[in-house]
Amino acid sequence: MHSPRLEKTSGLNYAPFDGGEPVFGPNVDGYVESAMSDHDVEGFFDSISRPEEGEEIADAYDLSAYRAGLVVQVDLAEINAELVLYLAQHPEKMYELNPRKFEELVAKLFRAKGYDIELGRGTKDGGVDIRAFLRNDVGTLLTLIQCKRHLAHNKVNVDVVRGLYGVVNRDDASCGMIVTTSTFTRDARSEQHRFEHRIHLADYTNLTKWLREYIQVRRTV
Hints:
Layout: E1 5-9, E2 12-18, E3 21-22, H1 31-39, H2 41-48, H3 60-63, H4 81-89, H5 99-112, E4 116-119, E5 130-135, E6 140-148, H6 158-170, E7 175-180, H7 186-194, E8 199-202, H8 204-220
Parallel strand pairs: 6-7, 7-8
Antiparallel strand pairs: 1-2, 2-3, 4-5, 5-6
């Protein structure tokens, strides 16, 4: 195949030719605009673009689950019943809570279990994020809770277990519990076995179970 040659013709300045016919016409001004207008190309792309404002909080799969068809505005700044329901379906969103809001979430879950809750001040709380009281006709049990909103790979180590055991003894509490969105190191679990009646560990798996239980309670109310 021979290469196009350049020839000068009337109305064209050295336009490329191949076999005697111009490769490009002498004037294409407005051709693209006209074609886009004829086929409404801009309208097509506008119809499939995402909204400029607002936040996508659910897709078709989400809405096929519990309470399908109901779009809930999820506000991570407020721990309310709707947020707990949302987290039960999307537990990975717990990682987006700030540590204080995670404490409030755990407090809400324990209230649903029948505990009376005292939430710590967040600073200078003496190593206790939540004081959970379980009262019945036998007496009152006090559980001291530490909340660790960690990423999945950031495991809670043995020092945290030992520290909570010291706080439980200091405050003469019934037991202590560490609740985390991650898991625990092998040493941490081994240490907990030494104090199995005084220290309890709850990880991401436990939290997802509690969230599901919360849904069941709400459905029966």
